[in-house]
Design a protein that fits this description.
Elements lengths: L2 H13 L28 E3 L16 E5 L9 H9 L19 H18 L5 E6 L2 H13 L4 E4 L4 H10 L4 E4 L25 E4 L1 E2 L4 E2 L11 E4 L16 E5 L10 E6 L16 H6 L9 H17 L1 H21 L5 E2 L11 E6 L3 H13 L2 E2 L10 E4 L6 H18 L2
Parallel strand pairs: 2-14, 4-5, 4-6, 6-9, 9-10
Antiparallel strand pairs: 1-2, 3-11, 7-8, 10-11, 12-13, 13-15
C-alpha cells in the first residue's frame, strides 16, 4: 500500500472511531498517547513510507532522527501526539480545531487559555497586552515604527541579518540611527562606550538572538526612559526575562512556541494609540488589542498548537528549567568545538555566543563541511547546514531538543574530527 493510501486508511479509521487512540469524530479520544517512546525523548523515526501515527519500536527499517531545523523548528513529539489525538474532534464538538469558528466559545477558550499560560510562564505584568497576529517577525519590522513613531526617530542595534533587515524597514518611516559602529561581519556586540543612543528617540530596537550569525545579547540593554523593543523570535521561553524592562517584545512562534504563521506581540498599554496615521489596521497594536486579537481571522490552529507547547513547557518545569537545559546544551557544543584542537571553530566572540543557534566552521574548509553534513544526515542528524549567507554549520538548540540528543551529536562531532584530521 503506497503512502497516500495508508494515510487515507488511517484517516478513515479515525473518522469511523476505530483508532486505538479513541474515536474520531464520533467522540473525544479516551486518553492521550504515551509520552515516552524508544530512545531519547523527542527522537523521531523515518520508516518505509507508513502514514504518520503511533510508531512501533525501532527496527532495522527505521532511522532515529534528531531534527535541528532553524525555523520552522522541532515541536515536541508529546505535543504533536496530543494534537493528533484530538485533531478530528476537538473537545467533543465533532469538528476539527482547524474548522471551528474563531468567534466561537470554543476558540475563545483556546486563545484566552494560551494567553494565560504565556502570562504565567513569562510573568507578564497586568499593564501589558498580549496580541496574536500574523505576518511573522518580518511584519513586525514595519509594525514597530508604524505603531511607535512620535518624534520620528528610532535607534537600532544592528548585530546581524535580522536587525539589519528591521533597521532598513524602519528607515522607510522614520529617522533610523544605528547604535553600533558599522561592521562587515557580525561576530559580537560592541561595548557600551561605543553605543550611540538619543534621549529623544521614540524607541530603541534590538534582536535578542541573531539566528544567522549566532550572536545573542547576554544582558538587556539599558536605554533609560526610551522604550525598548526586542525581537525574541529565536530565544523566547529559553531563559527568564523581566518583561517590565520592555515597551514591546515580539516573537515568531516557529522556533520555541509552535508552527510558523503565528506571531506574538507583548506591548505595554501606555504605548497603544501612538504611531503614524497611515498604519494599516491589520498591523495596528491598538486595533488588535481592542478586538482581542480577533480583528480578522487569526491563525487559529497555530494558536491552539502554541497553547499545547506552553502546556508542555510548564510540565517540564517552566522557563527556569528550559534555561538550565539551554545552558547545558550550548555548553556541550561549544566545549566540543573549543577542545577540538582547532578542527571546529566557533567564530562568535565568547561574550556574545548564542545559546540557541550555535555557529560552527570546520577549519579545513567547505568541502569537509559538505562531507560532515552528508555523514551527519546519514546517521540521523538532520538540518545542520548553516544559513546560505554565512555557510558552515548551524546547531539550533531550541527547547524541543533534549540534552541526550545533543550529547549524541557531540559524540558524532568527536568521531568525525578523529576520522578526518589532516
Amino acid at each position: 500500500m503506497d503512502r497516500w493510501r495508508r494515510a487515507a486508511a488511517s484517516a478513515g479509521s479515525w473518522r469511523r472511531g476505530g483508532s486505538a487512540q479513541g474515536g474520531g469524530r464520533a467522540g473525544r479520544p479516551d486518553a492521550l498517547p504515551a509520552e515516552d517512546g524508544d530512545g531519547p525523548a523527542g527522537d523521531r523515526t523515518v520508516t518505509d513510507g507508513a502514514a504518520p501515527g503511533p510508531q512501533p519500536p525501532h527496527s532495522a527499517m527505521e532511522q532515529p532522527i534528531v531534527f535541528f531545523g532553524p525555523g520552522p523548528s522541532k515541536i515536541p513529539d508529546q505535543v504533536l501526539e496530543r494534537v493528533q489525538a484530538e485533531l478530528l474532534n476537538y473537545a467533543g464538538t465533532g469538528v476539527s480545531v482547524m474548522e471551528i469558528s474563531h468567534r466561537s466559545a470554543e476558540f475563545q477558550q483556546i486563545i484566552s487559555g494560551t494567553e494565560t499560560r504565556l502570562r504565567r510562564l513569562l510573568h507578564i505584568p497586568d499593564n501589558y497586552r498580549v496580541l496574536f497576529v500574523q505576518g511573522g517577525a518580518t511584519g513586525q519590522f514595519a509594525a514597530v515604527p508604524l505603531n511607535l513613531c512620535v518624534n520620528g526617530k528610532a535607534d537600532y542595534f544592528i548585530t546581524g541579518t535580522w536587525s539589519k533587515k528591521a533597521a532598513a524597514e524602519a528607515a522607510r518611516y522614520l529617522d533610523m540611527q544605528p547604535v553600533l559602529p558599522a561592521t562587515e561581519k557580525f561576530l559580537g556586540i560592541a561595548g557600551r562606550d561605543q553605543w550611540r543612543l538619543r534621549p529623544d528617540a521614540d524607541y530603541v530596537y534590538y534582536c535578542d538572538n541573531e539566528t544567522v550569525e549566532g550572536v545573542e545579547f547576554q544582558e538587556v540593554p539599558d536605554t533609560g526612559d526610551v522604550p525598548l523593543v526586542a525581537d525574541m523570535s529565536s530565544n523566547i521561553l529559553t531563559r527568564p526575562i523581566d518583561v517590565s524592562k520592555f515597551g514591546v517584545i515580539f516573537a515568531g512562534a516557529q522556533k520555541n512556541m509552535g508552527p510558523a504563521g503565528l506571531t506574538i506581540v507583548i506591548v505595554r498599554e501606555d504605548l497603544l494609540g501612538r504611531g503614524l496615521p497611515v498604519c494599516p489596521s491589520v498591523l495596528s497594536y491598538s486595533t488588535m488589542a481592542k478586538a482581542g486579537s480577533l480583528y480578522n481571522t487569526p491563525p487559529c490552529f497555530n494558536v491552539y498548537v502554541t497553547g499545547k507547547v506552553l502546556d508542555w513547557v510548564e510540565e517540564q518545569g517552566g522557563v527556569e528549567e528550559m534555561s538550565k537545559r539551554s545552558d547545558t546544551k550550548a555548553k556541550l557544543i561549544y566545549t566540543a568545538a573549543d577542545q577540538s584542537d582547532g578542527f571546529y571553530v566557533a567564530p562568535v566572540d565568547g561574550a556574545a555566543r548564542s545559546r540557541t543557534t550555535v555557529q560552527l566552521r570546520i577549519s579545513a574548509g567547505a568541502e569537509l563541511e559538505k562531507k560532515f553534513l552528508k555523514e551527519a544526515e546519514e546517521v540521523g542528524f538532520k538540518s545542520l547546514k548553516g544559513h546560505r549567507s554565512v555557510g558552515g554549520l548551524r546547531v539550533a538548540l531550541f527547547n524541543a531538543l533534549t540534552v541526550p540528543q545533543i550529547e549524541k551529536l557531540v559524540k558524532f562531532l568527536g568521531q568525525f574530527a578523529t576520522q578526518n584530521r589532516g
